[in-house]
Amino acid sequence: MVRVFGFLFGLAETLGVSLKFVSFAMLAIAAGLLLATIWFWRSARPETEALAPLEIMGEREFLEADEDTRKRMLNAVRAKPSLAATGEDKSAPTADPIKTN
Question: What string of DSSP letters covers the chain?
Answer without folding.
Answer: -HHHHHHHHHHHHHHT--HHHHHHHHHHHHHHHHHHHHHHHHHSPPPPGGGHHHHHHTSHHHHHS-HHHHHHHHHHHSSS--HHHHT--TTS--PPPPP--
